[in-house]
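Predicting structure from sequence has reshaped protein science. With that in mind, we have picked out one protein's residues alongside their backbone shape tokens:
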Amino acid sequence: MDTTNPNAATENEEKLSYFQKVWRYRRYLVIEPFFFFYVMASVFNIIAMLSFPLEKACSVNLGYSREVCSTTLDKSVYDINCDAFNFENVTDYSATEAEKVATDISPGFNFTVCKAEVGAQKLAANVSGKRAPIAAIFPLIVMLFAGGWSDRYNKRKACMVFPLIGESLMFLCLLVSAIFFDKIPMEFGAYSEAIVPALFGGNTLCLMAIDSYITISTPEPDRVFRFGIFGMFANMLPFIGQPISGVLFNFLGYRWSFTMAFSFNIIALLYVIFIIKELKPSTMTNDDANGKAVTAGGTENPAYEVTQLEDLPTAPRPSNGTGTDTVDATASHEKRNVFKDFFDPSLVVDYVKFPLKKRPNRGRMLLIFLIMAYMFTVGPSLGENDFWNRFAFKKLNWNGNDYSVYSTFIAALALAGTFFGTAILSKLLKLSDALVGFVSSVTTALSRVLFAFASDTTTFYAGGVADSFVSLRAIAIKTIGSSIVDEEELSKMFSIFSICQPLAQLIFVPIYSDIYEKTVDSFPGAIFLFSEVFAIPNIIVFIICYIVVRRRKSQMKADGAAKTENGHNQTARNGNTAIANGDSEITSL
């Protein structure tokens, strides 16, 4: 490309169609292969992972027969309706001697299945509530330091490798639990599933590393489109795996399902280690000392040109003025204490000070409200996460295949709702970000009412349709926040939002688990009504944001008009040579 004529380059870029741009940007797609195997390890096995703790609790912990426990996962085989039975006064759900060997021809088989289902779900919910705080504390600690450490030393691969190690060990634990199905209790796999990945940062650390790597490996004019490609790729993955996850589980069983997932993570790990190259910081040169900027020259994609990575600098990043954002070239040769550098207390202090910093136009108040709204967005979502399939199994008599179809339907609706909200409501109809978030909050509140009282498949699907704008709240919150903070503070703001996720998991998941455990035999939809408590504050926050942002824009427009008018008046005064002393005629202003 002729770099001497930027106008010609821009014209050629504009002539490219969307798919031509995608084909041209194929050289950027070095992250996607690893992310495919990382995500699909769980997506392909979603039904196996959801069913495993329930069947384990039923068979091993409570002692029911394998036929009873397998029936709890698909009651439609025998057309069992558990609404006819009441277990509110039951305190011990362990199997009796007769129930330990019960079959479909045994007396009271339907009652036994329903009793086993309630007992298994109560036990699983109890473990979910206990493991959540433990699993949340480790990513919270890691995220407090990892972001600053990664930026300071330009280390991204480590933040991708560690979550993959955690996922691999997690599936290895599940595989061991599946091999010794009748000997190892449910708690081993359930705690391993949550805590082992958390010890290594989990998906929160992985996504932070991916976002950072994409940013520094992509030229600034191409970043929006590059992130768009990755976002579409990530949203399309469930369409590949979820429709067949139930079929794969029925065909492979637990052992081979977890073996496949373990293999996928090993492939992703090898890809990151040997294919993705670390982008090293630029070294100080004489030109740098003279104030000249370091550029990547004609390199279009340093992440793809792996044979030349050692010679390429990273994209420059703004400094916070403290001198701690990047490592000085002379210091890079000094022996550093990695543990001390990673757990630098100054990184935590910066996070604490960030939302409390005074900002113009009530920016500090808005930012605190937005952080609160984000907590109230991700908190209920994390709290409900473990109970969608359990509610469907218990209340709607679904099986794994039914739930995989519903999951695919919901993913499609979320993708369509996100496109409609961003392309139609925001771009075409010019709705403000606050109004888009308001629409998302209202529709989500409506959906929770439908979910709570759903007693049939139609009502449950209607709730899914109403919840199609669920992704827009987080988008609106981050977009409004980006307009409040300075450009050099954007990465810190997004890190704050990332920290909110494990913090919300620490708070919300135990509460939701306790509610479900206490209401599963009477009103399992109570958790969805509980989410309404947090939907209302979100609505209020977006209303406040709409009012404040609108006033700020009106004030800025008025200030701009006044400045323009003053400029015109000043020009007229300077050009009026007939007036001997124009400066004294202030009444004309």
In short: The chain has a mean pLDDT of 80. The chain has two domains: 30-284, 344-572.
